[in-house]
Amino acid sequence: MAIYNLGSINADYFYHVPHLPGPGETLAATSMSRGLGGKGANMSVAAARAGAHTAHIGAVGGDGKWAIDRMTEFGVDTRHITTLTDTPMGQALIYVDDAGENSIVLLNGANFQIPKQTIASALSEASPGDTLLMQNETLSQLETAKMARSLDLYIAYAAAPFDAAAVTAALPYLDFLILNEVEAAQLEEATGKTPEALGVTDVIITLGANGARWIHSGTARDFPAMPVTPVDTTGAGDTFTGYILAARDRGLPMEQCIALAMRAGALMVTRQGTADVIPDLKDVDEARF
């Protein structure tokens, strides 16, 4: 079994500030660092570190070889990442305050120019029952979902950054949908349907410090969060998603998948950074909460 992830790859530039800047405010950062990020790359690294064979489908600019090398080091299959020499790679400017909260500015770059042939070539290797994972930091999600449905893949969608039209269009093809509490309310307003009525077999709503809610075939169950003091919340949701799908890919029941992902997400928020600090399965198993 394998996970094929159509997803973004970013250079994350972290600026640590005393508080998140308001309109018109100029702040002095106390430090700056660069790391691998993008919701897609984060989820691929998380799934690979959780033990799943994970093939990333994406693109970087001519300045992105380091990102491909880093993903390979973390165990991701990078054969389906295209280098576009005349395009900058995606970037994220991330401001993190003393409480661990963040605000992010994105440059799409090569993430919006993934060749359709790259996607088709990757999925031509997939087998029935494999997983297709997508987010909203790339294009071609709907076409890719249709292709995946014809190949009998399990289709998972992380609805962030949230776009009601994009999510609504994809709904008929989805087996798994994950979104946060605000996004769930926005989707309900856009569709007129509660999460239980969307027709998606598995819907997971992340609730931050309150844990997560799993809705399976219309029936909801809540999972409490682990008690930790956050240092940086960036990438925690991506880690959670990657771990759930990796555990499912290994054949675990969804309850166990979520419980494992809760531990991974909790451990992630105690670390500073994104893809570079996503915990591996050994870290998660040995963590004490």
Automatic annotation (TrEMBL):
How many and how are cofactors bound here? Requires a divalent cation, most likely magnesium in vivo, as an electrophilic catalyst to aid phosphoryl group transfer. It is the chelate of the metal and the nucleotide that is the actual substrate.
- Indicate the residues that form the catalytic site: 238
To which pathway does this protein belong?
A: Carbohydrate metabolism; D-ribose degradation; D-ribose 5-phosphate from beta-D-ribopyranose: step 2/2
The residues the record assigns to binding substrate are: 10-12, 38-42, 137, 238
The UniProt annotation places K(+) binding at 232, 234, 268, 271, 273
What influences the activity of this protein, per its activity regulation comment?
Activated by a monovalent cation that binds near, but not in, the active site. The most likely occupant of the site in vivo is potassium. Ion binding induces a conformational change that may alter substrate affinity.
User: Where does it reside?
Assistant: Cytoplasm
Instruction: Identify which top EC class this enzyme belongs to.
Output: transferase
What cofactor requirement does the entry state? Mg(2+)
Reaction catalyzed: D-ribose + ATP = D-ribose 5-phosphate + ADP + H(+)
E.C. designation(s): 2.7.1.15
Q: Where is the Carbohydrate kinase PfkB domain?
A: 6-279
Q: Which UniProt keywords apply?
A: ATP-binding, Carbohydrate metabolism, Cytoplasm, Kinase, Magnesium, Metal-binding, Nucleotide-binding, Potassium, Transferase
Q: Where does ATP bind?
A: 180, 206-211, 237-238
State the oligomer form and interacting partners: Homodimer.
Function of the molecule? Catalyzes the phosphorylation of ribose at O-5 in a reaction requiring ATP and magnesium. The resulting D-ribose-5-phosphate can then be used either for sythesis of nucleotides, histidine, and tryptophan, or as a component of the pentose phosphate pathway.
Into which family does the record put it?
Answer: Belongs to the carbohydrate kinase PfkB family. Ribokinase subfamily.
Q: Per its record, how is this protein called by name?
A: Ribokinase
